[in-house]
């Protein structure tokens, strides 16, 4: 199966159109697909918010890097997020993170992990 492609949230900014419509500033979290994993189309300014919604168990998240122009890699491997905790990663640049298919890969150890991807201005 194909990886689940996560949709980015765009911030309203300093001067949003007024009045702000209901739900316009909401952030929707998407549950991890432990079998197929996740991906985003990296824009070079992506902040990824990861929430462990489980009441008692910690779970992990991994972000897969690729060699950059200096041949360096830097996977974020099995980062543990405690029960009920939220962690933020990024902003991720394309260099060092964008795979050969133009996507950035991530994976979680349990579906209690939920993602929100925010494209920063």
Short note summarizing the structure:
The protein has 121 residues and is mainly beta.
Tell me what the CATH architecture is: Sandwich
Identify the CATH class.
Mainly Beta
| Count of domains | 1
Portion in helices: under 10%
CATH fold call:
Hypothetical Protein Tm1070, Chain: A
**Subunit organisation of the chains:** single chain
Features of the shown structure:
single chain; 121 residues; mainly beta; Hypothetical Protein Tm1070, Chain: A; five-stranded mixed sheet; 10 strands; globular
Record the SSE blueprint.
Blueprint: E1 4-5, E2 8-10, E3 30-31, E4 38-40, E5 46-52, E6 59-64, E7 76-81, E8 86-92, E9 104-108, E10 113-119
Parallel strand pairs: 1-4, 2-10
Antiparallel strand pairs: 3-10, 4-9, 5-8, 5-10, 6-7, 6-9
How would you characterize this protein structure?
- The chain is an all-beta fold and 121 residues long.
- The protein has a single domain, classed as Hypothetical Protein Tm1070, Chain: A (Sandwich).
- It contains no helices and ten strands.
- The strands form two sheets. Strands 1-4-9-6-7 form a five-stranded mixed β-sheet, with no helix packed on it.
- It is globular, with a radius of gyration of 15 Å.
- The termini are far apart.
- The model has no long low-confidence stretch (mean pLDDT 96).
């Amino acid at each position: 199966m194909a990886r689940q492609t996560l949709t980015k949230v765009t911030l309203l900014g300093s001067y949003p159109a007024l009045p702000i419509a209901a739900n316009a500033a909401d952030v929707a979290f998407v549950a991890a697909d432990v079998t197929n994993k996740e991906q985003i189309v990296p824009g070079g300014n992506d902040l990824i918010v990861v929430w462990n919604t489980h009441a008692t168990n910690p779970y992990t998240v991994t972000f897969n890097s690729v060699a950059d122009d200096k041949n360096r890699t830097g996977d974020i491997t099995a980062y543990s997020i405690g029960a009920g905790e939220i962690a933020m990663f990024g902003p991720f640049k394309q260099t060092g993170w964008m795979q050969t298919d133009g996507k950035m890969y991530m994976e979680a150890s349990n579906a209690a992990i939920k993602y929100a991807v925010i494209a920063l201005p």
